[in-house]
Design goal:
The complex is a heterodimer of chains A (111) and B (114). Helices cover 0% and strands 45% of the residues of chain A. With 111 residues, chain A is mostly beta strands. Chain B is an all-beta fold and 114 residues long. In chain B, strand 5 and strand 6 form a beta hairpin. The termini of chain B are far apart. The mean pLDDT of chain B is 91. The chains are: A mainly beta (111), B mainly beta (114).
Chain lengths: 111, 114
């Protein structure tokens, strides 16, 4: 699996957009970019995934650069309940069953 | 919609005692099932996964075992717990098939071995 790099922490004001970056410069053509988050003491929550095109769902938007070497998760209107560790994961058919979580980004949404 | 349940939510057990953690999934059939462990402040480690009843694959050799007696039930067991077994145990499921399968996690069981 391609390795991902994320900033260890970020802050965001409540109601503003939170933009979480992820670098995955060694990503291969058939690998997807997945985002999960983990709120303290809870199981990881799936947010979104994408391959090449930008994706949007009810939780977030995923912007993938044209060369696919980096991506950004956007929470359009962050709330206090979005405070969590956000994980960017690159996964392809050679990953097997394993989801490899790195260190992630601790996002703190401030009132 | 699909839901995944784990119990108990928390557990405190003495060293050497047995363990049984249960995970059940509702709203889907023939899921792939997974057990992960998360040590304090660390990432997730895949312990076992199952693609069907009675089919278990182990990722890490240890004193834990897993069983899948029914299609949507996954059990994690140990005959004798070690201190190092403490952690946050997470069950996950995915829809079988497709190039890449999205995994959905349960609420977890926090185990403390004393």
């Amino acid at each position: 699996d391609a390795k991902t790099t994320q900033p260890p922490s970020m802050d965001c004001a409540e109601g503003r957009a939170a933009n979480l970056p992820c670098n995955h410069s060694t990503i291969s053509g058939n690998e997807y970019v997945y985002w999960y988050r983990q709120i303290h003491s809870q199981g990881p929550q799936y947010i979104i995934h994408g391959l090449k095109n930008n994706e949007t769902n009810e939780m977030a938007s995923l912007i993938i650069t044209e060369d696919r070497k980096s991506s950004t998760l956007i929470l359009p209107h962050a709330t206090l309940r979005d405070t969590a560790v956000y994980y960017c994961i690159v996964r392809g058919e050679t990953s097997g069953s394993r989801l490899t979580f790195g260190e992630g980004t601790q996002l703190t949404v401030n009132p | 919609s699909q839901t995944i349940h784990q119990w108990p939510a928390t557990l405190v057990q003495p060293v050497g005692s047995p363990l049984s953690l249960e995970c059940t999934v509702e709203g889907t059939s023939n899921p792939n099932l997974y057990w992960y462990r998360q040590a304090a402040g660390r990432g997730l480690q895949l312990l076992f996964y199952s693609v069907g009843i009675g089919q278990i694959s182990s990722e890490v050799p240890q004193n834990l075992s897993a069983s899948r007696p029914q299609d949507r039930q996954f059990i994690l067991s140990s005959k004798k717990l070690l201190l190092s077994d403490s952690g946050f145990y997470l069950c996950a499921w995915s829809v079988r098939g497709g190039l890449v399968e999205t995994q959905y996690f349960g609420p977890g069981t926090r185990l403390l071995v004393l």
